[in-house]
TrEMBL record:
GO terms for molecular function: GTPase activator activity; phosphatidylinositol-3,4,5-trisphosphate binding; zinc ion binding. This is Uncharacterized protein. Pfam families: ArfGap (PF01412), PH (PF00169). Gene3D superfamilies: Arf GTPase activating protein, Pleckstrin-homology domain (PH domain)/Phosphotyrosine-binding domain (PTB). Residues 6-127 form the Arf-GAP domain. It comes from the Eukaryota. InterPro entries: Arf-GAP_dual-PH_domain, ARFGAP/RecO, ArfGAP_dom, ArfGAP_dom_sf, PH-like_dom_sf, PH_domain. Keywords: GTPase activation, Metal-binding, Zinc, Zinc-finger. CDD domains: ArfGap_ADAP. Residues 268-378 form the PH domain. The lineage of its organism: Eukaryota, Metazoa, Ecdysozoa, Arthropoda, Hexapoda. PROSITE patterns: ARFGAP, PH_DOMAIN.
Amino acid sequence: MADRNEKLLLGLVKKIGNNICADCRSPDPEWASYNIGIFICTRCAGIHRGLGAHISKVKHLKLDRWEDSQVEKVSSIGNLAAAARYELNVPASYRKPMENDPHTLLEQWIRAKYEREEFCHPEKQPPPYMSGFMEGFLMKRGRTDSKYKPRRFKKEPKAVLRISELSISFCPVKMCNQTSFQISYLADLNPTSTSESSKSARNSVGSGGNPATFHLSSVTTRHLYLYHEDPKIAVDWYMAIRCSRLRRMQIAFPAASEEELVRWLPKDFAREGWLWKTGPRPSDSYKKRWFTLDNRKLMYHEDPMDASPKGEIFVGEKGDSFFVKEGRAQGISPAGAGPGGVGGFPFSLGTPQRTFHLSSTSAEDRDAWIKVLQTVIDTPLNPRDNALAARLCRKRASGSMNLFNSR
Ligand SMILES: [Zn+2]
């Protein structure tokens, strides 16, 4: 009988719908929850086990012994019918996690589906999933002292945060915290500010600095590093911000479909890591910088957890003379002289204003950066990108914004 049941199960798991994990959509599930009636991957099976057998009873398709009645149960339900029930009312802005997404997102998705049954009973959903409104305490990293302190947040932290321009990345690796997220937004700086950036800008202007290279922004990107120790509350915040963002976009782009707008919701950073960067002159030295690619904005920082980038590069589309290519342009000094072994795997990122000369410490890293930047360049600008670019260009034209500063 055991052989017969195993054969039946291995036949069932090949069916459309059952051939990908019911929760994270990774291919070829090896486990099943026989009371829920779904096929799942090893990672999700571990989370199901954590829910307790009163919620989900999991077995390995090959290694465990199956009763006839258990096989009949999964056969009578399956992943498609279970999704029709447990995912009936997933809000459009809710991020359904995929195979390699952060553990907290996946665990809360599975708990929301089967433990709290939020999506078959919408009245059980936390109101922020649909209203986008939320308030409460979050732990916020200090801009200068790097200590986390509790801060009270409403949906829009302080008045400076424009939800229509913020991006949010859940659980970036550098934060080393499973319930953290990073919010990045364009902040209008006080023009009377005596910060280092405005001082250096005045100096540059005073000494006849090239307006394309001096560092000045009355608008700059700010990073907020936040967490809540309760994984559910951290995810609720994240989903509330996504919902709020979707609502704003629906007002700004009434002609776009909801499906399209959901695709424009902020994604986790496409790539982050150390690169070496040199200036356009042969005498310029290489500096180690932490690069973050956030949608079409490539930012670089001295430290991964800086409150603001030192520079920001808007990555446009191919037809507008943007390019990325392997190798070093003529006249640019080779990497290798800097402290700690400068990366010897150069590549260039071209923009209409200037070309950025970068270097990785390995061929794999360089190739990964080129690939991810090429994908951005190959993607046509969408109306949201255009709106952002227009805002940035307006700022640049008025001399109060420099997206291509060179520090
Ligand atoms: Zn899975």
